[in-house]
Design brief:
Keywords: Membrane, Transmembrane, Transmembrane helix. With 210 residues, the chain is an alpha+beta fold. The chain folds into 2 domains: 117 residues, no CATH class; 45 residues, no CATH class. It is 49% helix and 19% strand. The chain has 7 helices and 5 strands.
Length: 210
C-alpha cells in the first residue's frame, strides 16, 4: 500500500512539475514566435511604405488599391538623378559652384527613368507579395487605405495606412495569450497589431513599432 502511495506521489510531483514548466515556457515560446512574425511583418510594412511614398512622388497622392500599388511597383518607372563627379578642393578654391561645374561639363547630373522595382528593391522582388501578411496559413492581405486630411489652415494632406491585426499575424499561436495581448493594447488605446501610416493624423508615415 505504501509503495502505491509513493508511486502516486511521484506521479503527482511529475505532473505538477510539468504544468509549472509549461506555465513558464508558454509565454517564452509565444514571445519568441511573436517576435519572429513581427520582424517579417514590419519589414513588409516598410516595403509598403517605400512603395507608397514612391507612388505619391509620381502621382501626388497615395493609393488605397492593392492592384494599383502592385501594378505601379511591377510596371511603372520613377525619375533617378545619375551623378557623375563632384566638387573638388581645387574647384572650391577657384570659387566654382556645382551649378557652374555642371555648365562647364566637369560634373554631370543626368535625370533618367528607371523601373520602380529596380529603384526600390533592386529588381529581384515579387511585387505581388506586398499585399500579403508574411505569416503561415491562408494568404491574407494587409488592410490598405488612403484619404485626404484637411488641416485647420485648409491644407490638404494625403495620408495612407496599411495594417494587420494580431489575430492574423499571430494566428496558430496560443489563443489566450493573443487575447491577453490584444486586451492590453486596447486598454492602452493602441492598435492590437502592426500598422504604418495613419488615416487620422499626419504622422510622417511612421509605423506603430517605431
Amino acid at each position: 500500500m505504501r509503495t502505491v502511495i509513493q508511486i502516486l506521489l511521484v506521479v503527482a510531483a511529475v505532473v505538477i512539475t510539468y504544468f509549472i514548466y509549461q506555465s513558464v515556457q508558454r509565454p517564452i515560446e509565444f514571445d519568441k514566435a511573436k517576435e519572429a512574425r513581427y520582424a517579417v511583418t514590419i519589414q513588409k510594412l516598410k516595403d509598403i511604405r517605400k512603395a507608397q511614398i514612391a507612388y505619391k512622388d509620381v502621382y501626388g497622392k497615395f493609393t488605397g488599391s492593392w492592384d494599383t500599388l502592385v501594378n505601379f511597383v511591377a510596371h511603372d518607372s520613377v525619375r533617378n538623378v545619375r551623378a557623375i563627379g563632384e566638387l573638388t578642393d581645387s574647384m572650391i578654391e577657384a570659387k566654382i559652384t556645382e551649378k557652374k561645374a555642371i555648365q562647364m561639363g566637369l560634373i554631370i547630373r543626368d535625370t533618367v527613368r528607371v523601373s520602380v522595382i529596380e529603384a526600390l528593391f533592386g529588381g529581384n522582388y515579387d511585387a505581388n507579395s506586398l499585399r500579403y501578411v508574411p505569416v503561415p496559413g491562408e494568404p491574407t492581405e494587409f488592410h490598405l487605405a488612403q484619404t485626404i486630411l484637411t488641416t485647420g489652415s485648409g491644407i490638404k494632406v494625403p495620408l495612407f495606412e496599411a495594417k494587420a491585426h494580431n489575430n492574423v499575424i499571430l494566428r496558430g499561436l496560443d489563443e489566450q495569450l493573443i487575447i491577453n495581448m490584444n486586451d492590453q493594447r486596447r486598454t492602452n488605446d493602441k492598435y492590437p497589431g502592426l500598422k504604418v501610416g495613419s488615416l487620422e493624423e499626419a504622422n510622417n508615415n511612421a509605423g506603430n513599432w517605431e
